[in-house]
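Example record used in the benchmark description.
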Amino acid sequence: MTADYPDLPTYRHDLAGCLNNLGNLLASSCRFREAEVLLRRALPVREKLAADYPTFPAYRQALALSHTSLGVLLTATDRYPEAEIEIRRGQEILEKLSAEFPSTPSYRQQLGSNFTALGCLMTAVGNTEEAGKAHRHALALRTKDESKESFFGNLHDLAASHSYLGQLALATGRYVDAEQELRQALALRQELAAKSNMLGSQLGLAVSYHSLPIYSQS
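Model output (structure tokens):
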């Protein structure tokens, strides 16, 4: 379809979305080489769309997602300098979109995910101070948006932020802070599991229960 209708950006946008989604799926299965090929194929398509249609914010948002997805993969494969470049490129785009469209929560929500990716990267390189800043920034963005249109996703993301902060506090010997964050993650996952039959919510709850005794026995 893209070759048949090169002047229709929707098809290119959909193609890049499929490439990025499949790349993320393969990366989650640790098939990193295949995933990277797909993510890198999606990136230039989205770069051109964002450049050709600067008044369409959805194309810029998609480009930011590509940069973040690639950054997460590069983090997972220990290529930290490259990962930071990609994550910060996505961050820059999302910060501009959030400023331009303050009434659109999806930009801030995606920015929160970007900061989470940055926090995980900083943890991987041993920079706990910057990791904490990134995770707290993600938490602040997620706390700000109590959007009903994405209720379950917001609860999941809030729980993830508290969990990351709890594990970071635990790793740096701040046990009181660790327990507070992990208990907040647990409460959110209990709420999510109670209101949803999704397996992922139940698994997240199990992870939260598993995390608490680690501190309690310290």
